[in-house]
Design brief:
There is one protein chain. The chain is mainly alpha-helical. Helix content is 75%, strand content 1%. The chain contains 18 helices and two strands. Strands 1-2 form a two-stranded antiparallel sheet. It is globular and about 60 Å long.
């Protein structure tokens, strides 16, 4: 008998989707609400040298934890793991608000990332339990809309709270949000009916995976903060991380309950989905960091001008996701749909590499294909990966896809910011030669366009899905 999710009435689906929205909002706002308060926090705690790790620690922790939570949610149910993630988030937020030193704050942000940093992927896996096939993409579009709205509101909220209350308020605000998310979860999402499978999770595998990923991400993060790619510390961390990941892969071959079953990567569609996610978030996260710097340092734009231009990008992402969700209801050709989105993003990036930073209207116009193109890939790639496996592995594959998404963001920041720093001669960006800096930004955007073009070619390997797969089955792809 199939263990596919039983169909629900439309009202039940809406109720459960709405119950997941607060968790997604919290996960999104936690990533960026702190950004505008970093200088204030550094001055208050008397240490400006470590403020970059307030953001990076959260990102690394969330990236490492996501595949682990995905596996555990398959074993113990989505609701239980979402409740655990929300509880960890509340503990991390409380400790961050009470921090009296920068190391304590960074440790609290790591704990916060272990909770909030996994909420988006867990919510997507939970939705897949009661929504089947391309219908998932339509609702994933709404999830992306909530995520984008939170990302847009977070810096504004963080600035207001820091200015009028205290920097500690940007962490205290998470407690009522997490409480609301926990209440909605327990009220509307039923516990998993699937019995917990026999066997214990592979503890050594989890430790090796966590240590290996964490080491590699720390090396990449340090590069994005100015360390050299060929520096001794970067090479040492990279080699250690590679060795730990090799040990993990060797162990997972014979593990009775592997964290990430390596058999997943035998499926060309899942490999393609993971690689497309790396490329798209290389582009999205890297450019989200570069665009404000480019407009302010080279284009001399004011902060409010930058914010207005970025609104187009922020709104285009959910618009593209909603459009892709509707398109998936009409076509099984997911690979072509993803390739179309990647090509749109490449077009926008190529334009940014050519346009002058003072061309306000041109920049705003180019944000639209960039954001819409990346937005089109978000639900399509996830749903394609979920439709490639059975319901028992939805949590694992969702966690893996989310991990590669985060990995792409870290790599994008490291590669693109290192290119700009090299153009600045290794010194402060604000003191670099404007012409050299402009060439460096143009090269960075051109590199991002090349990555998006590569993603276009990879996306075609996702192929198309049969109507049986569209109704929630697996293994429905055609070559």
């Amino acid at each position: 008998m199939s263990d596919a999710p039983a169909p629900l009435a439309a009202a039940q689906v809406r109720r459960r989707v709405l119950a997941l929205m607060p968790a997604i909002f919290l996960g999104a706002i936690d990533q960026s609400i702190v950004s505008v308060a970093l200088l204030t926090i550094g001055h208050a705690l008397g240490d400006l040298t470590l403020i970059a790790w307030v953001m990076s620690g959260y990102l690394v922790a969330g990236t490492v934890a996501t595949p682990l939570y995905g596996k555990l949610s398959d074993l113990h149910g989505r609701r239980r793991m979402l409740a655990l993630a929300l509880s960890v988030s509340m503990a991390g937020s409380t400790l961050a608000a009470l921090s009296v030193s920068m190391p304590m704050l960074i440790a609290a942000r790591v704990l916060q990332g272990l909770g909030s940093g996994t909420l988006f992927a867990l919510s997507q896996a939970a939705a897949a339990d009661f929504i089947s096939g391309p219908e998932r993409a339509r609702w994933q579009g709404y999830f992306s809309g909530v995520f984008a709205c939170a990302a847009l509101a977070a810096p504004l909220a963080g600035g207001y709270l820091t200015e009028h209350l205290s920097w500690r308020a940007v962490f205290w605000i998470n407690l009522p949000l997490a409480a609301l998310a926990l209440w909605a979860l327990m009220t509307a999402i039923p516990p998993s009916r699937r019995a917990v499978r026999a066997g214990r999770i592979d503890g050594w595998g989890a430790a090796l995976l966590t240590a290996g990923i964490g080491t590699v991400l720390i090396a990449l993060t340090r590069v994005g903060q100015g360390a050299g790619w060929l520096g001794a510390s970067t090479l040492a961390l990279g080699a250690l991380g590679a060795a730990l990941l090799a040990a993990w892969a060797w162990r997972e071959v014979d593990a009775p309950e592997p964290i990430v079953p390596l058999v997943l990567f035998r499926d060309r569609r899942i490999r393609a989905c993971c690689l497309v996610n790396v490329c798209c978030f290389f582009v999205l996260v890297g450019c989200t960091v570069l665009l404000p710097l480019w407009m302010q340092t080279v284009g001399n734009a004011r902060t409010d001008e930058v914010a207005r231009r970025l609104v187009a990008l922020t709104l285009a992402v959910p618009a593209g996701a909603l459009a892709a969700g509707r398109a998936m209801l009409r076509t099984p050709h997911l690979g072509a749909l993803v390739a179309c989105g990647c090509a749109l993003a490449a077009l926008g990036l190529a334009g940014l590499a050519w346009v002058r930073p003072t061309a306000s209207s041109g920049i705003t116009a180019l944000m639209l294909p960039l954001g819409a193109g990346v937005g089109m890939t978000l639900p399509s790639v996830l749903v394609a990966a979920q439709m490639s496996v059975g319901p028992a592995m939805v949590g694992v594959v969702t966690g893996v896809v989310a991990f590669f998404r985060s990995l792409g963001g870290v790599i994008g920041i490291a590669v693109l910011t290192s290119m700009v720093l090299a153009g600045a001669g290794g010194g402060a960006i604000t003191e670099a030669d404007p012409r050299a800096l402009e060439r460096a930004f143009s090269a960075a955007f051109a590199t991002a366009a090349g990555v998006a073009t590569l993603a276009t070619a990879i996306a075609l390997r996702i192929g198309s899905f049969s109507r049986a797969a569209a109704r929630g089955g697996s293994d429905g792809a055609r070559s």
